[in-house]
Amino acid sequence: MEEKTKMDMEEGEEKALTIYFIPYLAPGHMIPLCDIATLFALRRQKVTIITTPSNAQILGKSIPLNQHLRIHTVPFPSHEVGLPDGVESLSAATDLENLRKIFQATTLLQPPIQHFVEQHPPDCIVADFLFPWVDELANKLQIPRLSFNGFSLFAICAIESVKAHSLYESASFVIPGLPHSIAMNAAPPKQMSDLLEALLETVFKSNGIIVNNFSELDGEEYIEHYEKTTGHKAWHLGPASLIRRTVQEKAQRGQQSVVSVHECLSWLDSKPDNSVLYICFGSLCLFPDKQLYEIACGIEASGHKFIWVVPEKKGKEDESEEEKGKWLPKGFEERNIGKKKGLIIRGWAPQVMILSHKALGAFMTHCGWNSTVEAVSAGVPMITWPVHGEQFYNEKLITQVRRIGVVVGAAEWSSTGIGEREKVVGRDSIEKAVRRLMDGGDEAEKIKKYAREFGDKAKHAAQEGGSSHRNLTAVIDDLKILRDRKLRV
């Protein structure tokens, strides 16, 4: 009996797929793709994540490395581009020059990654679309490639429609051809759109795109629209963050938090349910001081409790009172932090843990897809403040299509999240948006109800029998068919 069991296990191992995951070196790309890699490993597929040494250290603390899931490292070309050792992620950029250097360094990763893959060919490669050269590599090795870009499918449909109708110069327009009438009050920067569209062309050459979302949030109408207009397959496998079930697992997702789990939990535990506003604009958005000042004034005027994540350099010991006065009103910390009404986190925060706490009432967000789907998973309504990339499209999905948030009124679509902006969102707009969602009333209650419902749908999608769980089974089965067909040739 024991011998038969051993044979069955060996046969099962032989049937497992060997899959390489190549995440881009930015938290909003790396974290969800590595969580998705973990989903495949939990189904006993042989998964290898290919990344650089510094990122491997971070990932090694937050994903369950075992016989099914391992990390392979390739050197990061720090010296070739003039970066200090250990700076291996776009989130480490403090200015546009460093951002450029890190981006340049990621293009130099092709030779060592390609060498490893050619020496040890897998059954499939899952790569971020910011590594378009993987398409040629997969074709050379005659293996399937799945693409990942960290976007919602709704946003991709919007990008494709804007491209098809060349809507770059209009101050405002309605996106043609979508299942909903989506009115935009800002046009995407032409340079950014050109880059995204070129990268999406490479995506469409792959065997399919993996989406960190669940089909109920994007909607069957957008899945059908995408597949009909592009002829391409989309696999909804998220929300990937839901594999983090314990407080510790949620706290360890991503980089090391600058605030202890105990301190953060104790602060939240002392607050009533649904009473705290969480404010965070992601790892790639660095607002100028004058915008931070308006945020401080707006949230204080709203009268609500808050957790506010600001850039790491803010509030350092060597920050003078004059420097602090540029981004914080005089006495702000004494009135709010000192009286336990607010908590400022300088740097990386345990976002999934914070969002899942019962004290959370709303999330002011830049609408990056990683943050958006984490909020949806937790059933938390949003105050939307898009900045760059595809975030303005995500805002429309949140506020107009699914009605689980309100807008703050941001209208300047930037090429990056770093640097000065022509427009500042004023304190009055910020206070109004916070009150609209946090003060109660019929509109707020409807939005919160829809948010809770989508939170329930997200959890069901990830469970056995749910839509994302079924999609993961289907994509594994399809990849095995492709592999076995190749072996028979």
TrEMBL record:
InterPro entries on file: UDP_glucos_trans, UDP_glycos_trans_CS
What keywords tag this UniProt record?
Glycosyltransferase, Transferase
EC numbers on record: 2.4.1.-
Class of enzymatic activity (EC top level)? transferase
- A single Pfam family it belongs to is UDPGT
Q: GO molecular-function annotation terms?
A: UDP-glucosyltransferase activity
Give the similarity note. Belongs to the UDP-glycosyltransferase family.
From the Swiss-Prot or TrEMBL record, give the protein name.
Glycosyltransferase
Q: Organism source for this protein?
A: Medicago truncatula
Organismal lineage: Eukaryota, Viridiplantae, Streptophyta, Embryophyta, Tracheophyta
